[in-house]
Each structure stands twice: as C-alpha cells, then as structure tokens.
Amino acid sequence: MHRSLRLFAAVALLLLSFGARAQLTIEIVGGAGTAIPIAIVPFGGEASFPLGISGIVGADLQRSGVFRLVNTEGVTPRPVRAEDVRADVWRGRGADAVVVGSMQSLADGRVEVRFALMDVVKQSMLTAMTYTVTPAQFRATAHKIADVIYEKLTGDPGVFSTRIAYITKTGGRYQLLVADADGADPQVIVTSNEPLLSPRWAPEGTRIAYVSFEQKKPVVYVQNLANGSRQAVANFRGSNSAPAWSPDGRRLAVTLTKDGGSQVYVMGADGGNAQRVMTSNGIDTEASFTADGGSLLFTSDRGGTPQVYRLNLGSGAVERMTFDGSYNVSPRPTPDGKGFVFVRRDGGRFQIAIQDFGSRQMQVLTSGPVDESPSLAPNGKLILYANESGGRGTLAAVSTDGRVKQRLVAAGADVREPAWGPYAR
Amino acid sequence: MKKLTITALVAIFLVGCQSTPTTAPVEDKSGATAAGTPGTGGASTSGTQSGGVSGSTTGTGANPLRDPNNILSKRSVYFEFDSFSVADQYKPIVEAHARYLAANRTARVTLQGHADERGSREYNIALGQKRADAVKRMMTVMGVQETIVETVSFGKEKPRNMGHDEAAWAENRRVDILYAGE
Description:
Chain A is mostly beta strands. Chain A has helices spanning 54-63, 87-92, 138-154, and strands at residues 8-14, 24-30, 36-40, 67-69, 97-105, 111-119, 124-133, 163-170, 173-180, 187-192, 196-201, 207-212, 219-224, 230-234, 240-245, 251-256, 263-268, 275-276, 284-289, 295-300, 307-312, 318-320, 328-333, 339-346, 349-356, 362-364, 372-376, 382-389, 392-399, 405-410, 414-420.
C-alpha cells in the first residue's frame, strides 16, 4: 500500500528548554524621513532591577523606524514624574515627546511600573499608566508601554507585544519557532528532519497551522501553542499545503490535490468537511481570506502565467487582480481591507510589492533579488519577509510605505517563512 | 503569561517504519511495448535507455528495481524550465515503470515532484505536483491503475543540486519515482 510508504511520527511532548536557539536581532537599515523625536528618560529606580524597562521601550520605538531617540544624558535632576518634566529643556534638545517613569518594589515581591508620556510641544500630558507586575513580566510590560506610546503618537496600534513565527534550517534539521516581535525569547514548537513550511497564526493567536513533510509528503497540521498538541487537519491523498485561517478562526483555506491538480478548498479548522471552492484546469494555490472573510485572494496560472486573483465566496465570481508582469504570487490581504501585498518577479528579481484594490495602483517595496513569503503586521504597517544574505536565508521587514527597512539577523541558522502573529489578547 | 502560552515544546522524532520491500519477480505481460523485453522466471531484463544502451540480464532473485543495469533503477525524470510534459528522452523510463506496475499488482508507487529554487515556496509545491501528475498521466495511459500511484510534491524544498545556476536548476526540476517500502 502507498500507506506503507508513510513514516509514523511519534510526537513527544518535551518540557525542555533548548539552549542553542537562533535568536533574531533586528537592525534598522533605513528609517522614515520624518521620524518623531522622542526622549525616553531612564525610569527612576530601574537601576536596582536586572532588566530595565526604559531601554526596551526605547529600542522598540527606535526599531520601528517611526521614532528617533533624543539623548537624555546630562539632564539634572532627572525627571521621574510628569510634573518634573521641563518642556523647554526637552524642546531645546529637539524632542517632541518625553517619556518618564519609575519602578518600585512592593511588599509582595511585585513591582509597580509607572510611566507618563508628555507632548512637550503642546506642553500636555498624553497618557499616564501604572502596572503591577512580576519581574518575569518586565519585558512584556515594556512592550505594552511601547504600544501605548506608538498609538498615542502615530494613531496606529503598536505591534511590540505581538509574536512572530519562523522556520530555521540547520543542517538537515527543520524547526518552527515562536518569538517575541523583537526576536526575544525564541521557543521551538516543532522539530523535524523533513521540511516545514507556511506557518500561519490563527486569529486568536493560540494555534498555528503549518505544512510538514514528515510523512514524506506535504500534510497540514494545526498545533495548539498552549499544550503542544496537534492534529493533521489535511492529510489527503496527494499534496496538502498552503493553509490560511478565516478571520473567525473556524475554517482553513488549503490547497489539496486529492481530486487532481492543485485546487483550493475550505475546511473546518478541526479537519472536517473539505469543500472545493472553485474549479480550474490550472494551478490554484496560496489562498488567503480577506479581512471581511468574504473573499479569497489566491495565485493561479489559469491565464498562462501565475497571477493574483480574487474569489468572491458568496457569488463564486473570480476576478484577476494583477496584470503587470509574468509572475505575481503569494498574495496577502492588508488588515484594512484596502489591498494586498504580494511577490512579483521583475526580470530575474523577486520583490515584495503592495497593490490597492480600488486604484489598482502597485508600489514595489523591496529590491530583491530573492524576496519571498511576505507577512503583514496586524496593524498593517510593516511587512516581514524572507530573503537571502551570504547564501543563507534571513528575514527582513519593510514598512508598507516602503520607507522603513529592517534586517533580522540570526547567527548560524538559515531562517525562512516568517509569519507575524495577531495582537496579544 | 507569555511563558505559559509556550511552555510545551513539541519535538517530533521521526521513526522510520520500513515495510517489506517489493520483491515480486518481474512478469512482463504487456507484450506490445516500445522498449524492453519480457522477463522470464525470476530474471529481469531492462528496457532501452535514452542513450540507446540496452540492459543486461541479472541473476535469479535480483530486484530489478535495484539493479543498476536495469532501466527500472532509473528513478528521475527531468523537466525543462516552465515545462510539465515528459521529454522524449525520459519516456522509456516512465514506460518501463508503467510496465512494471502493470505486471506487479502489489507494487505501489509515489511520484515525488520537485521544482527549482526560484519563486514562491507554495507555488513551487504546485509546480512540482503538476510534473508528478504529468508522469502519472503517462503511466495511467499505459494501463497502470490510478489508485496505485500517488503524486505528491516537495516543491523547492529538496533540491538535488544545491547550486544556483541553470545547470543546478535543471537537476532540481524533476519527478522522483519511489516504490512503497523503499
């Protein structure tokens, strides 16, 4: 039987911590021309803790490319509370905004973290908050503060508290990892001797769908991040790949070949009831639900070359979306529902581009040569994608306006297939 | 909190469960074939290869699938760029396997499609699948039962040649023929 070809995978739940995980560090390659100058004053009392909050807040904001950190050294006395901030001093240093705060141990071992954000141009307090946390939550608290500051000053929610998933290849070993958006705290969730591919976060952030070749063929799994349990949700005859979650987290779009050819199906996220959503005599794959759940964007070669199409799930109508060039693939709808990010080939170069549904206007965001697998941050502002550097896979990010560019560097590993997780809940 | 959500680390250990290799002797019943001659008894004979080299006879009991002198030991069909049809030079290989499958009713085969490294990983899965499907179509036209051939794709994930030039890519656009139990 062909079944005897299959390898049986024994899944072991190991409560281990892996010492040598490749941690990503993020470097800014190019920033927005109009970065907001902000001073993050070291928090009062934070020197007595092993991990300070203000440094992480500053690193988050600077890394976003939207902010420029103003030097805080030499300002005495150092302001700790909002009322200590002298607007003229910070205006003189070129700051538009100032963050002050404090960290103080409580009797129960927890720590009170306070911060205030001041607009020193308008001379007003924008927000002030207090968190009572354990030392293990310092990093998460810093990301939360950075999210609040980002939203107050840009109008868009911050994504510093989100997580990312990616795949590393080291020799013949493949691993699926989950880490904080700044690359910290990487956790291995799958290890396999066969390729892993296409991780996709469920909208609530507690499950990840991915493709594994451990059965010597592509099979789609859904794994629970809380307990590590998983289920082969699409393991039909032939190839099973390209999972994508519906916005309500109940369904998955997948590419199956069980009925001949690569075709798109929608099925229950628990593996039930795979329904083919359209029929073509070419390749249909890489489907993604649009933000309203009413359509699928997908790649098809039905017109002779691979192009992006949109299927209206209600009416069944299919519309071609890309016309410029002979290779436009991997569409990912933007969270605002206004357009999509995709990979285009220009000559021999593969680049990340963004296109508006309404105007059909396309903007190329990266220069290639081998950019692939774009994944949008939940606020729609940054795109994480894979490229190569020195013959090895690396990750990079670009803002959807093309101005901010980041490089995510991991020592010693081939990194690919990034997926940006949803907002933390 | 964050720690709690990812406390469980799952490691997958692949345990290979080898099933019994196909050892049935060749009984070529097809008769009318362009390449190859019918085998007799436990001996196997090879068909004509692309270079016009004819095969040799192996000893009794040898597995024709493993005999380097037998065309059945050839397991890869290569494709031109952007092509999904079996080129003439590889047709004798596909035909030999089709005859073997038609004659050995217990044999099961997986056709594993592959693509070169250029472009989307998922789209390359579909390209490899299209190539595997093309080989399967040729086999079923020759009388192989549809149900004993499974087509799958590895896309660009398992290149045979790790290089980044046309020569490497040509080696990576392929379909590998794997028998159950191998």
